[in-house]
Write a structure and sequence with these properties.
Blueprint (H helix, E strand, L loop, with lengths): L8 E3 L2 E3 L5 E3 L1 E2 L11 E2 L2 E3 L16 H5 L7 H19 L4 E2 L3 H16 L4 H7 L3 E2 L16
Antiparallel strand pairs: 1-6, 2-3, 4-5, 7-8
């Protein structure tokens, strides 16, 4: 049996303070071959489109946040943050961004459908809506590599 090469990915553990914490999970479709019907944290692979130019115009302080991942290049670390936020929006419709207005929230439902259809990109949505991704709401937890089994 051959070992599949590791692919960069990001997973989001979304918590809300409560006693104990509320933990956000999504349920995978039953029709998916791998772990169909399972409750999982939103996440997925880092796509080429997650490597954004001019990142500091979209996320304040991203370069400093990426420094928390010293074992990978800064641009790759930033792409992991972007992938985490994109996957959360794609899979669950949760967008950690500001400033959100009533009008932008209505447009984001259409934007999300377009993103899922592949007719727009996450970066285009953020730019067109004049949003900044909420880096302050995201904390780096760990960098894991699935071991060979």
């Amino acid at each position: 049996m051959s070992v599949v090469a590791a692919r960069p990915a990001a997973t989001v553990v979304l918590l809300r303070p409560a006693r104990p914490f509320d933990v956000f999970l999504v349920r995978r479709s039953d029709s998916i071959a791998f772990m169909g019907g399972a409750h999982v944290f939103p996440g997925g692979r880092v796509d080429a489109a997650d490597h954004l130019d001019h990142i500091d115009t979209i996320i304040d302080g991203m370069t400093g946040a990426a420094a928390r991942m010293p074992d990978i290049p800064v641009d790759v670390a930033i792409a992991h943050y972007v992938a985490a936020l994109r996957e959360l929006f794609e899979e669950a419709g949760v967008l950690l961004a500001h400033p959100l207005t009533a009008a932008s929230v209505e447009r984001l439902a259409v934007d999300r459908r377009d993103l899922l259809a592949g007719t727009t990109t996450f970066a285009d949505i953020i730019r067109n809506e004049g949003l900044g991704l909420a880096r302050d709401g995201v904390a780096y937890g760990a960098h894991l590599v699935t071991p060979e089994v």
